[in-house]
Design goal:
The complex is a heterodimer of chains A (125) and B (437). Chain A is built from 2 helices and 10 strands, in the order βββαββββαβββ. Chain A is α+β, with helices and mostly antiparallel strands and 125 residues long. In chain B, the strands form 7 sheets. In chain B, strands 1, 2, 5, 6, 7, 8 and 20 form a 7-stranded mixed β-sheet that branches. In chain B, strands 11-18-12-13-14 form a 5-stranded parallel β-sheet. Chain B starts with a strand and ends in an 8-residue tail after the last strand. The chains are: A alpha+beta (125), B alpha/beta (437).
């Protein structure tokens, strides 16, 4: 049996979770919603995080554009993902949801753009 | 150039965008948003991390994604936007003076104004750290903008003073970008950041958080070379025996936010010393008829979703004012009871409230199990149980209109001599009461 106390990071409430594993069955207490249960189970088996960062952008309003992993990836791969993304360069136009790197590090997760930049005119007045 | 609008919104961040959209939905035609930056979105543009929108959109978005939802809605409307435009003041005739490279000096007339300028970070000057004035000292938000928007890395060896959420988020961000974040120091005995950020920004990356610590000196001539840190005693005074020199090239300050009200002051909007923002009513009307305020200019929020919610109220209020359906009577006043730092809105006109009034409030110290209560005289009109209340977490507290009306001595809205009825909001700790669950 293993027991672990943790703080849920799914939303700003930050529930205090207690996770127990007895005979292969995971029991979670302290969660206010189902996401807390799923988080605690995942955290016990293989902690995952969404990674957010920027990649270089040519022709945009600013020289970088924000991106994120579309789903959480294993915590152990965060720095490898950062290494790959530090070498990515893209050009306008870019739209929210555009895939920058497909299936990064064979995680099955795509890295996607999180901000629109169509290039060209920025003034509307 | 002089132009006339129905409504001018000052600030194109989350508050300004939501306020303009709400006014539009309530029938206001001729709306202008003035934005200082080169794009809409405000501070959300640099908040590239996720965690926004859980309440409002029921999904977890990054700052730019949250902002884009509102930008897309605005682009579907006829709302006019002036970017790269700086508002200088609002004069005694309620005219807005602004400048931009495209239009030069402008005087803008409008039937109503919504203030949505957001807030500013406290700086080194505000906390008075001794030492030289080298480069390499940034507020956390400035460093965030440099990295996430301009693509510059401000330093390599970092010490962060203050454990507000921006400081915590920047500890992670700079670590991901290859910097060594040596420590986060917090003067108080607990962090005022959210627990989730302590976990996912500090613990995930093994960054130590030193509570009851501060910086007593900054070293370096041209560039920061190090800081002297110290433990503080119960009076927050540094303990000499604990002084320790920490080499670093960059110091980030995350030591609080202050609503940005220079323009409000020029319009003679009355400010509340507790929130540092305007005194407002239930539709976020200020003391100046026709001027409304919402978002961080009013009080610093911790969750953008509530900014959007509040801004919608201000947009609705402005729409009513423009239609001539606004009654400036104050029927009720909210008062800080025990344990409460501030309650917003500070005043109410019950005749504007449909069925509930949502109060935002903060507690003055941490509470475990407790009950938030609203009283009129000897009558408890609303209560809500919480399992935990922290000064860093704003509390939403709804009061039903019937409950307020039932306990108030209300005369017709036009009765000018009427003194507002006081609603006292307080916190009752329940930790020692064994009868409670």
């Amino acid at each position: 049996m293993t027991q672990q106390e943790m703080i849920c990071i799914c939303c700003p409430i930050g529930c205090n979770l207690s996770v127990e594993k007895i005979d292969g069955v995971i029991r979670v207490t302290g969660n206010k919603c189902p996401r807390g249960k799923a988080y605690a189970e995942q955290e016990l088996l293989n902690p995952e995080r969404i990674v957010t960062t920027t990649v270089k952008l040519t022709g945009g309003l600013y020289p970088v554009i924000p991106v994120k992993t579309g789903r959480p990836i294993p915590k152990t791969k965060i720095f490898e993902v950062m290494d790959i993304l530090s070498n990515v360069e893209i050009t306008v136009p870019v739209h929210i949801g555009d895939v920058v790197v497909k299936n990064i590090l064979d995680t099955g997760v795509d890295v996607v753009i999180t901000k629109n930049d169509m290039g060209g005119e920025y003034e509307r007045s | 150039m002089t132009k006339q609008y129905d409504l001018v919104v000052i600030g194109g961040g989350p508050a300004g965008m939501a306020a303009a959209l709400s006014a539009k939905q309530h029938g206001v035609e001729n709306i202008l948003i003035l934005e200082r930056d080169k794009e809409l979105g405000g501070i959300l543009n640099q908040c590239i991390h996720n965690g926004f929108g859980v309440h409002h959109f029921k999904e977890e978005l990054t700052g730019p994604e949250y902002s884009a939802r509102f930008i897309t809605e605005i682009q579907k409307t006829s709302i006019e936007i002036m970017l790269d435009t700086m508002v200088l003041k609002i004069d005694n005739h309620r005219q807005i003076h602004a400048i931009s490279p495209n239009h030069g000096y402008m005087v803008l007339k409008s039937k109503a104004i919504i203030l949505a300028m957001g807030c500013r970070e406290r700086t080194r000057g505000a906390i008075r750290i001794y030492g030289s004035r080298p480069s390499g000292i940034y507020t956390a938000g400035t460093a965030q903008r440099l990295i996430n928007i301009n693509g510059y890395m401000p330093g390599k060896e970092i010490v962060i003073l203050g454990s507000g959420d921006i400081g915590l988020v920047m500890a992670r961000r700079m670590t991901l970008e290859g910097a060594q974040v040596k420590m986060v120091l917090e003067l108080q005995s607990r962090s005022n950041g959210t627990l989730r950020n302590i976990v996912q920004c500090l613990e995930d990356y093994h960054i130590p958080l030193y509570l009851n610590h501060t910086i007593v000196q900054i070293h370096g001539k041209n560039r920061v070379e190090g800081v002297t840190i110290a433990k503080v005693d119960e009076n927050l005074a540094p303990i000499k025996a604990s002084y320790q020199y920490i080499p670093c090239d960059t110091l980030l300050l995350s030591v609080g936010l202050i609503p940005e009200n220079e323009i409000s002051k020029s319009a003679r909007v009355k400010l509340d010393s507790r929130t540092r923002g305007p005194f407002v009513g239930e539709l976020r009307q200020t003391n100046i008829p026709g001027i409304f305020a919402c978002g961080n200019v009013l009080h610093v929020h911790d969750v953008v979703d509530f900014v959007s919610e509040e801004a919608a109220l201000a947009g609705y209020g402005a729409a009513r004012y423009i239609r001539g359906q606004f009654d400036t009577t104050i029927t009720h006043q909210t008062i800080n009871g025990e344990g409460v730092t501030y309650v917003l809105p500070q005043t109410m006109n019950i005749y504007h409230i449909e069925d509930t009034c949502n109060l935002y409030l903060r507690v003055n110290k941490p509470y475990g199990r407790c009950q938030i209560e609203a009283w009129i005289g000897n009558t408890l009109i609303a209560s809500k149980r919480e399992i935990r209340c922290l000064p860093s977490e704003m509390i939403n507290f709804k009061i039903r209109k019937e409950a307020i009306v039932g306990s108030s001595d209300l005369r017709p809205a036009q009765a000018i001599d009427q003194q507002p009825t006081q609603i006292i909001v307080k916190i009752v700790g329940m930790d020692r009461d064994p009868s409670l669950p």
